[in-house]
Design goal:
CATH architecture of the largest domain: Alpha-Beta Complex
Structural class: alpha+beta
Number of strands: 9
Radius of gyration: 22 Å
Distance between the termini: 30 Å
Number of helices: 6
CATH class of the largest domain: Alpha Beta
Helix content: 25-40%
Number of domains: 2
CATH superfamily of the largest domain: Nucleoside Triphosphate Pyrophosphohydrolase
Shape: globular
Largest sheet: 7 strands, mixed
Amino acid sequence: MEVSEIPVRTLAEIEAQVEAEKQSKEAREYDPSRFYHPAVTVDLVIFTLSERDLQVLLIHRDHWPFKGRWALPGGFVQEKEALSQAAHRQLQEETGVSEVFLEQLHTFGHPHRDPRMRVVTVAYYALVPADKLPPSTEGVRWWSIYQLPELAFDHDRILDLALNRLRRKIMDTNVAFQFMPEKFTLTQLQRTYEIVLGRVLDKRNFRKKVLGSGGVKETDELHLQGRHRPARLYQFDLDARDF
């Protein structure tokens, strides 16, 4: 039995058809003011591993609302901007990086989450290697996910959901490579998992799971550190998407 496929139009085709609809008589008679129009923002949870700690980027708010509190980076979606474009723009503006893991997390639309107006935000989370990131400044700072300041809006709820999503994802996929150097020891990899999960893992079970998954592959190189026995270096097999 053949598998049927849904015919999917390109975005350009959809845009052309929408523009054609705008030229119709019905479009000229349509009154959009009949409906309430909330504002739309994107908020970013930007994770990194630094100093053996899972950290998140926060922005100090120097104006109302919630002046003096810390908040996730984000902003309003521009009129002709797709959600993903807005998220990538905010990531570039706040960190200066672009080619990193970025995934949509959830939509937060409680009617009283923002004192300015009705604001619906689409949250994303990003995973960025520490060596690609700018240092903290007076108004932009990296905070330990386990020692957060008082947050603005509902950003504590967004962070909690993002952390739980990351913890589930790191157990089921090879997304941990976003935090790792190109080549690493299994001890370094296990430490990364423990930092993200917030708990100690059994060494034997961890290595059995990782090596049996096909997600990492052994190299011919060894890692030398002091007087310790040399450790084998591994690297992720990026063609093996799931563990």
